[in-house]
Design a protein that fits this description.
single chain; alpha/beta; CBS-domain; four-stranded mixed β-sheet; three-stranded mixed β-sheet; 7 strands
Length: about 140
């Protein structure tokens, strides 16, 4: 089974130019704690409710003037050729990733959510670790 088979296909994103306040309002409106950040249509990073609390509120920054690009957990940048899975702070997987591999990745990186991208690094879904089975269950279902 592939990660595309279990991902949530409705993904709320925010442009890198959005303010922290705009991101917080989107999170509240859609009852999410995680927004992928896009720049020129591709994944640039993510912003979480924790990022807003620690980097805006605790940091004493103005949420109306600070953009999400300034506080995001960053990605490779537009046009980057790096392997996204190897970059610090980036939690994204290709849509054709096997489910067992996705579970291992999330467990090893200790991340709760990942974006799912196509071959052009456009976000096509999101997966939460709590939505996935244990690795043992996944392997036993696959006959391993």
């Amino acid at each position: 089974m592939k990660i595309r088979d279990v991902m949530t296909k409705t993904v709320r994103t925010v442009p890198s130019t959005a303010t922290a306040q705009e991101a917080a309002r989107l999170m509240e409106m859609h009852d999410v704690g995680f927004l992928p950040i896009v720049e020129e249509g591709v994944s640039a990073g993510v912003v979480t409710d924790r990022d807003l609390a620690l980097r805006i509120v605790a940091g004493g920054r103005d949420p109306k003037k600070t953009t999400v690009a300034e506080i995001m957990t960053f990605g490779p940048g537009v046009g980057g050729k790096a392997d996204l899975a190897e970059l610090p702070g980036v939690a994204t997987l290709a849509e054709d990733t096997e489910l067992a591999e996705a579970i291992r990745f999330m467990d090893e990186k200790n991340v709760r959510r990942v974006t799912v991208h196509d071959e052009h690094y456009r976000i096509v879904g999101v997966v939460s670790r709590s939505d996935l089975p244990s690795l043992d269950d996944c392997l036993s279902d696959a006959g391993h």
